[in-house]
Design goal:
The complex is a heterotetramer of chains A (616), B (192), C (304) and D (181). Chain A is mainly α and 616 residues long. Chain A has 22 helices and 5 strands. In chain A, strand 3 and strand 4 form a beta hairpin. In chain A, 54% of the residues are buried. Chain B folds into 2 domains: 126 residues, NADH:ubiquinone oxidoreductase Nqo5 subunit (Beta Polymerase, domain 2); 44 residues, no CATH class. In chain B, strand 4 and strand 5 form a beta hairpin. By secondary structure, chain C is an all-alpha fold. Chain C has one domain. Chain C contains 13 helices and 1 strand. In chain C, helix 4 packs antiparallel against helix 5, helix 5 runs antiparallel to helix 8 and helix 10 crosses helix 11. The longest helix of chain C is centred in the N-terminal third of the chain and has 33 residues. Chain C starts with a helix and ends with a helix. The chains are: A mainly alpha (616), B alpha+beta (192), C mainly alpha (304), D alpha/beta (181). Chains in contact: A-C, A-D, B-D, C-D. At the A-C interface, helix 15, helix 16, strand 4, helix 19 and strand 5 of A face strand 1, helix 3, helix 4, helix 5 and helix 10 of C.
């Protein structure tokens, strides 16, 4: 059988089967979903890259194949899917409606693979809608705040879907084909203004999923509201579908003359990154914080793609992969805290480091990667992004990105301090380390974060393959992935990653040895209650935790920027619409005589206007 | 020049008409004492605050009249309009020292009551306040009572540096100089 | 000339140089402050005594692994960024080459925050609320001063089309000028940002002893504090050398280096002596007013 | 170097030299003596030239100054602070209150003899000692450190039971944390 069909049958069939298994044989369910995803991974990675399938339904020509760009995103989806579903088996333990959950989970994985493999707009739209609906069903799974979170998500998704549909119709009207290959060939023949319209409509469609300003308002609620095991996939992979769509639009549908649209998108993404970071800084719930941070990170990715240079696109895609890696880990870690300690509110929980050391290690590594600090993977992406923007003369964009990523240190520290460091409160004394099925995915993913900082080759090579399909020349040296250590920008300046790694590791180990060697026998651990506090002996019940209004001074400094939330504008807009509908209702008041007057007035108006302008 | 006591007289009249069983004394300009029994203190304070405008609470202090076997509580309140300090004095039994809680009139009485409870052992039924004010883990007689033997306590509890044993009692000399008598209960402090 | 032993000894020599210079600068700062306050002041080698004493002190407690590693993170960041900074320009003294050609300005800017974040993690684990308050102040203030600093760096990179420090130094050698004259606005913005980088008064709210009991380091004593003081002096050297390299044409020999770095060092010291202390949000808005303005001017200057 | 009876190895000599010249002091402002410290540290008397500087927390400090009378309530905190300091550590008692109770010789809540509760290396006499005498006290402490005689902490460790007994006599219901460093 064609392996594309096999892939889809496996995932979608497996989804239905897992629902049935949960009904009749719940004991096999967990093993089944993990095995299924292993199988999917096996099929995906052994697949021949030339595999292709074409068929016709109702006169519409459809085509499925994995392009090399789609393959790159497919790697994210399949690996993150496997790991997050492994994580789910422990995380979702003891919750009800698991059949529903796993079915929708697998549906969204399948629909993502479907989106990636579809080479025509009809199946793309079809799978896109499946993805939206299955993710919506998981967002409302917990049943709390559905009218706020779920409604926002589905309304924005619907806006995106409609504009996508409109774009598809316009494209079909001009080119007469749904096949991407045909469209890519003939799109530049149409008028530039229509090209722009198509691009903008598609951007709205994809921009909703990648949470770009001003379409981002759904993201914080939807990310923080769904179960963390799904949010790892949601933020890590599902939002990347928007990025994938962006790459299609920017590199295949927009001609090079339309540089303005790149600039606009880059600036929108930059503003998204800055504002979302500021919002992340002032959050006190770890989930919300990570949700805003995801929006900001997606901003970087889009900036990279929109910069349009070789290094920028590479940075964008590299950050896309890495964001899936580290944000997946972080959402999983926060989920582990939620599972073990019962809350992710950072004003309540603190001092879990000694209880959950491995979760802490995974989060620490991911945070270092997120903050872009050498020598981990995030730095490689950030470095390429900066260099790309500087060498392509986007100086003020660099400042925006830098502002956002410097402010990102604040929330990076906040989440580590809020959950793991600080006072060890007695009410969390019972907390234990997360079970193995939750730990293993986290540690594997953080392993990737570490590895990609020194040996980025194993991610950069598939990225380069994808970029060749966008029409870039390959520039990486033709060597094995573990030999790739020097990155160049287009001015010829470089950073040697392996030297960085060696230097940092060597100094760190030497200093650590020296400091530990001096008197380590005498040194003993004291609890966090044994601190210098003007001589007071702190009792177990004394609360010495500093968590509330953590970044108040910073908040005061940036307050002018945060005064008006974009959310409020939408609320105002909604209220305005309501008033408009009120007015309309008053016009259509159901009284026949009024309707007669309206008709008469309209006719009179027509008469006057007609005589004046048309002369009859 | 003869001092006129117009506003003090007015206050005298007002208090005298409102309360019968109180003794009012105009001590000097802008200073009026009211001697009342303990159940009248709260009404007087309330009346003075609500009706006469004595809305500023200055002080609450306690005096140990060990000779009479009584504690005297002194509430000092003040009016910004008349500028009169009104002293409301009451005497309570020393053996069973309880006094009405008044911290609902002025919140700051809370602090004074805590101090008096700790230092004199006077209870204020219905008064909710932190148990400890200044002393921590005090188990002895409340230290501001005059029957608390400080020297004995100090000798029992603290160490003495050698060479400071002479400890001349200067009180005798001071008493002789000013022509006063040291009362009997205080005699035991003398070193001879 | 390129054996591993030679490189290692060169690295050690660089570290020793940075440590010594940084320590003496700290001592001179204390002396200057004392003289301005009409005092005699401690001897200029006082900081050495302090560090040796701190190392010789017992440290018999720790609050956990992160506290143990916090100072290590700090010194790692200092030494690693030292390794990537060209100490002398041109051929200079070959010993101080280290890893100059393996990183560029963007890398250095990121490497320089590594230490403070690691240090912040260490301070966090002690559980002392003063530490956490100090850390939040420090990080917030960092957002303030990093922006004008990066703007001036971006301006230089944009003007000369290179992102490497050695590249900028070579340009200054070839054109026989200093970049502080080629792009004066960038220099002004960077110097104003430097005031914040040194955490001297008026930007010393991070470890204001009277307010937050020395902030992040309030639970660190003995060897930890010693390590952090060493790291701080190396880091001061790193910052000064970076500024000298980028704006003042680098130095051909050690004496020139010392003169130039000391001249730069006097700016934050003298500005600090006569200044009171800013609150955190005041510090942030300070950096987001004039320094930011000069940063924008610098980029405009560079791009036209 | 100092005298032959007290021969030190070169390492000890260096250690003691740095210790004596770098005293991080925690000024525990218990009594009226605290007001003498600003004068001691600032322009007029300038203790920093002797290497004396303030430390913010007991973890960083070498030297604990008890500046004046100690009420029993404060004593608890002083003991805690003293035990939180890391070896080697020194204590200076300020004024007659710490020596023999001073004017508080018969106060029911003020201890009279500091060295019964924590070891004192140097006492400075006076009520209050003027900055000159404070600096003389620092000098005396430096002399003791250089000779290796400022061993109050060691004494405290060796006679911990005796000190604890004295402390418990005053601080009845106070949980004294186990001292073991």
């Amino acid at each position: 059988m064609n392996s594309l069909i096999l892939l889809l049958i496996l995932v979608f069939g497996g989804a239905l089967l897992s629902y049935l298994l949960n009904k009749f044989l719940p004991i096999l369910r967990d093993g089944f979903v993990v095995l299924l995803m292993l199988l999917v991974n096996y099929v995906f990675f052994t697949m021949d890259s030339a595999t292709q399938i074409e068929f016709e339904i109702g006169g519409i020509h459809l085509q499925w194949a994995f392009s090399s760009a789609a393959f790159l995103f497919g790697i994210i989806v399949s690996i993150l899917g496997l790991l997050s579903i492994t994580y789910s088996t422990a995380y979702m333990q003891g919750k009800d409606r698991l059949g529903y959950f796993y079915m929708n989970f697998l549906f969204s994985i399948g629909s993502m693979l479907g989106i990636l493999m579809s080479r025509d707009l009809i199946s793309l739209f079809f799978f896109w809608e499946i993805m939206t609906w299955s993710s919506y069903l998981i967002v409302i799974y917990s049943g709390k705040d559905v009218d706020k979170r779920g409604l926002k998500y589905i309304v924005f998704s619907a806006i995106g879907a409609y504009s996508m549909l409109m774009a598809i119709v316009i494209i079909y009207g001009f080119t007469g084909s749904f096949l991407l290959t045909d469209i890519f060939d003939s799109i530049f023949a149409i008028k530039a203004s229509y090209q722009l319209a198509i691009a903008i409509l598609l951007m709205i469609g994809f921009g909703v999923k990648s949470a770009m300003m001003p379409l981002h308002v759904w993201a914080s609620g939807a990310y923080s509201g769904s179960p963390m095991s799904f949010t790892a996939l949601f933020s890590g992979a599902l939002s990347k579908m928007g990025v994938f769509g962006f790459s299609l639009v920017l590199f295949n549908l927009v001609s090079n003359q339309n540089w303005l649209i790149n600039e606009i998108i880059a600036w929108l993404a930059a503003i998204t990154a800055v504002l979302a970071t500021f919002y992340a800084v002032i959050q006190s719930d770890a989930k919300k914080l990570l949700a805003y941070s995801s929006i900001a990170q997606l901003g970087y990715i889009v900036i990279g793609l929109a910069s349009g240079t070789y290094l920028g696109v590479m940075a964008g895609l590299f950050l896309a992969v890495l964001h899936a890696v580290f944000k997946g880990t972080l959402f999983m870690a926060v989920g582990a805290v939620e599972k073990q300690a019962g809350t992710t509110d950072m004003t309540k929980v603190s001092g879990l480091i000694r209880k959950m050391p491995w979760t802490f290690t995974a989060s620490l590594i991911s945070i270092i990667a997120l903050a872009g600090i050498p020598p981990l993977g995030g730095f490689v992406g950030k470095w390429m992004l900066y260099e790309a923007l500087i060498t392509s003369d986007h100086y003020y964009l660099v400042i925006m990105v830098f502002l956002s990523s410097t402010a990102a240190f604040l929330y990076s520290y906040r989440i580590l301090f809020g959950l793991f460091l600080g006072q060890e409160e007695p009410e969390f004394a019972h907390v234990k380390e997360a079970p193995l099925p939750m730990l293993i995915p986290m540690l594997l993913l953080s392993g990737i974060s570490v590895l990609s900082g020194t040996f980025p080759g194993f991610i950069l090579e598939p990225i380069q393959n994808a970029m060749v399909s966008f029409g870039f020349d390959p520039r990486l040296p033709n060597i094995e992935w573990w030999q790739l250590s020097v990155l160049f920008n287009s001015w010829g300046d470089k950073v040697v990653l392996q030297n960085v790694m060696i230097s940092i590791t060597a100094v760190f180990l030497i200093a650590l040895t020296l400091i530990t060697w001096k008197g380590y026998k005498k040194q003993r651990y004291v609890t966090t209650k044994d601190i210098s506090s003007s001589g007071e002996i702190i009792q177990a019940e004394d609360n010495m935790t500093f968590q509330i209004d953590f970044y108040k001074p910073f908040e005061r400094a940036i307050w002018p920027l945060l005064k008006r939330k974009i959310d409020d504008y939408y609320t105002d807009f909604g209220n305005g619409l309501e008033a408009l509908f009120d007015l309309v209702k008053r016009i259509y008041n159901g009284n026949g005589q009024f309707y007669a007057i309206y008709v008469m007035a309209f006719l009179a108006l027509l008469l006057i206007a007609g005589t004046k302008y048309f002369g009859f | 020049m003869k001092t006129s006591f117009i506003k003090e007289e007015l206050l005298f009249q007002q208090l005298a008409t409102a309360f019968e069983n109180v003794v009012i004394e105009i001590v000097r300009k802008e200073t009026v004492f009211v001697y009342a029994s303990k159940e009248f203190v709260l009404p007087i304070l309330l009346y003075a605050k609500e009706k006469l405008g004595y809305n500023s609470f200055s002080h609450l202090s306690c005096v140990d009249w060990i000779e009479n076997d009584e504690f005297e509580l002194v509430y000092i309140i003040w009016s910004p309009e008349t500028k009169i300090n009104l002293f409301v004095k009451t005497r309570i039994d020393r053996q069973n020292p309880t006094m009405e809680n008044t911290d609902m009139i002025w919140r700051q009485i809370n602090t004074y009551q805590r101090e008096i409870r700790e230092m004199f052992g006077i209870e204020f039924p219905g008064f909710v306040g932190e148990k400890e004010f200044i002393l921590e883990d005090w188990e002895d007689v409340p230290p501001m009572r005059r029957d608390f033997d400080t020297l004995e306590y100090v000798n029992d509890t603290f160490f003495e540096r050698e060479g400071r044993e002479d400890k001349q009692d200067v009180r005798e000399r001071i008493a002789k100089r000013s022509g006063e008598e040291i009362p009997d209960f205080a005699k035991k402090y003398s070193r001879e | 000339m390129n054996t591993i032993l030679f490189q290692l000894s060169g690295a050690l020599a660089t570290i020793l140089l940075a440590f010594t210079v940084g320590m003496f600068y700290g001592g001179i700062r204390r002396k200057i402050i004392a003289r301005i306050q009409n005092r005699v002041g401690p001897p200029i080698y006082q900081n050495f005594l302090d560090v040796i004493k701190l190392y010789s002190k017992d440290t018999s407690i720790h609050h956990g692994a992160m506290q143990h590693m916090g100072p290590v993170f700090a010194i790692t960041a200092s030494i690693t960024s030292l390794m990537f900074i060209p100490v002398l320009n041109g051929d200079g003294w070959f010993w101080f080459k280290n890893l100059n050609f393996s990183g560029d300005l963007i890398f250095l800017v990121y490497m320089m925050v590594f230490g403070s974040l690691g240090m912040a993690l260490g301070a966090g684990q002690t559980g002392n609320p003063n530490s956490a308050i100090g850390v939040t102040r420090g990080l917030s203030q960092m957002v303030g001063y990093e922006i004008p600093f990066v703007m001036s760096m971006v301006a230089l990179m944009a003007q000369f089309h290179t992102t490497s420090i050695t590249g900028l130094m070579n340009i200054q050698m070839q054109e026989n000028t200093w970049l502080m004259f080629s792009n004066p606005f960038a220099f002004i913005a960077a110097v104003l940002a430097m005031l914040g980088m040194f955490h001297y008064s008026p930007f010393d709210i991070v470890h204001a002893p009277a307010e937050v009991a020395s902030g992040p380091v309030s639970e660190f004593g003995g060897k930890y504090l010693g390590l952090m003081m060493s790291s701080g002096s190396i880091f001061a050297f790193v910052k000064l050398t970076l500024f000298v390299d980028v704006f003042m044409g680098g130095a051909a020999n050690l004496i020139e280096l010392v003169i130039k770095t000391f001249a730069l060092y006097l700016i934050p010291v003298l500005y600090g002596v006569v200044s009171p202390r800013y609150r955190t949000e005041q510090a942030i808005t300070y950096f987001w007013k004039w320094p930011l303005f000069f940063g924008i001017l610098a980029i405009l200057w560079a791009s036209f | 170097m100092y005298n032959d009876n007290n021969a030190q190895t070169i390492v000890e000599y260096i250690k003691n030299f740095t210790r004596k010249n770098s005293l991080f002091m925690l000024a525990y402002g218990t009594g009226c003596g605290a007001i003498e410290l600003p004068a001691t540290l600032t322009s007029r008397y300038d203790a920093e030239r002797l290497g004396v500087r303030g430390a913010a927390t007991p973890r960083q400090a070498d030297l604990l100054l008890i500046t004046g009378y100690l009420s029993t309530k404060t004593l608890k905190r002083v003991i805690r602070v003293y035990e939180q300091m890391q070896d080697p550590k020194y204590v200076i008692g300020f004024g007659s209150c710490t020596i023999n109770g001073g004017m508080y010789w018969d106060s029911y809540n003020t201890i009279k003899l500091l060295d019964k509760y924590i070891p004192v290396d140097v006492y400075i006499n006076g009520c209050m000692p003027r900055p000159e005498s404070v600096i003389a006290g620092f000098k005396e402490l430096q002399r003791l450190i250089a000779e290796g005689k400022a061993d109050g902490a060691t004494k405290y460790k060796e006679n911990l039971d005796w000190y604890r007994e004295n402390q418990k006599k005053v601080l009845k219901n106070w949980p004294l944390v186990e001292y073991n460093w």
